[in-house]
Amino acid sequence: MASNRKIMVLPGDGIGPEVMGEVARIIDWFGTHKSFDVSIDHDLVGGCAYDAHGAAISDAAVEKALAADAVLLGAVGGPQWDNVAYEARPEAGLLRLRADLELFANLRPAICFSALAEASSLKRELVEGLDIMIVRELTGGVYFGEPRGISDLGNGQRRGINTQVYDTYEIERITRVAADIAMMRSKKLASSEKRNVMESGQLWFEEVNRVIATDYPAIELQHVLADNCAMQLVREPKQYDVLVTDNLFGDILSDVAAMLTGSLGMLPSASLGAPDAETGRARALYEPVHGSAPDIAGQGKANPIASIMSFAMALKYTFDRGADADLLERAVMQVLDKGLRTGDIMQADMQLVGTSAMGDAVLQALDELGN
Ligand code: NAD
Question: Which residues are part of the catalytic machinery?
Answer without folding.
Answer: 143, 194, 227, 251, 255
